[in-house]
Amino acid sequence: GENVEQHPSTLSVQEGDSAVIKCTYSDSASNYFPWYKQELGKGPQLIIDIRSNVGEKKDQRIAVTLNKTAKHFSLHITETQPEDSAVYFCAASMAFSTDSWGKLQFGAGTQVVVTP
Amino acid sequence: NAGVTQTPKFQVLKTGQSMTLQCAQDMNHEYMSWYRQDPGMGLRLIHYSVGAGITDQGEVPNGYNVSRSTTEDFPLRLLSAAPSQTSVYFCASSQLGTHEQYFGPGTRLTVT
Question: Most distant CA pair in chain A: distance in Å?
Fold first, then answer.
């Protein structure tokens, strides 16, 4: 089955700096890669996602890049703010397979701390 | 729209006890799922359902039962609680054909 590794496990950045979180996946059939943000005491919330036919996607201060050959994808947060402090999870799935639809394989998570 | 709701927020059980974690959504989503979250392990899929009357196993189904009698509700039953089931449990839902999953606020379960 799919295995997703996420690094680093913790990331401390100064406000205004950039943060990068990297994930690798094992199954080349995976074709959907979402990123979820989990604030303290809450459930995860989707912040951005990318499909395997796209190399990069941007939404304001966040961007995701995907390298299918190397089987890795990354989350980039620019101009970090204190409200970006949270746990971020990457995930992978074979979203367009009827057997695997909705089955997300999550990474272990990255605790991001933005210090003023 | 309340979204996805879960009850209770916290629960302490003794080994061998049974209980049901409740999950409900008011978005008319066909797909619902249960995950458990453990430190350093991300979220792991327990069971899922693509519609009323249809359920299937995820990655870690042992010790858990589910049923889906209505579109709105997807309860998770622990038949005989074990300390290894100490975890935070999240319910999620999404619309078939889309991929964004909406998560509930979670239930923190401790089994002693």
Answer: 46
Closest CA to B52 of B73, B76, B69: B69
Q: Is A96 on the interface with B (CB under 8 A)?
A: no
Contact B42 A89 (CB under 8 A): yes
Which residues in chain A are closer than 8 Å to B42, comparing Cβ atoms? 4, 6, 89, 106-109
Residue that is written with structure tokens 């049901």 in the block: B20
Mean pLDDT for back-to-back runs of 10 residues, chain A (116 residues): 94 98 95 95 95 92 96 98 97 76 88 96
Tokens 């303290």 locate to A40
Quickly tell me which residue has 């979250």 as its tokens. B37
Q: B52: exposed, middle or buried (C-beta count within 10 Å: 0-12, 13-18, 19+)?
A: middle
Exposure string of B86-107, with b = 16+ CB inside 10 Å and e = fewer, is bbbbbbbbbeeeebebbbbbbb
Please say whether the beta carbons of A36 and A91 come within 8 A: yes
Return the structure tokens found at A98: 């009827």
In tens, the pLDDT along B35-90 reads 999 988 899 999 999 999 999 999 999 999 999 999 999 999 999 999 999 999 99
Residue of chain B minimizing CA distance to A107:
B42
Torsion of CA B77, A1, B92, B65, to 10 degrees: -10
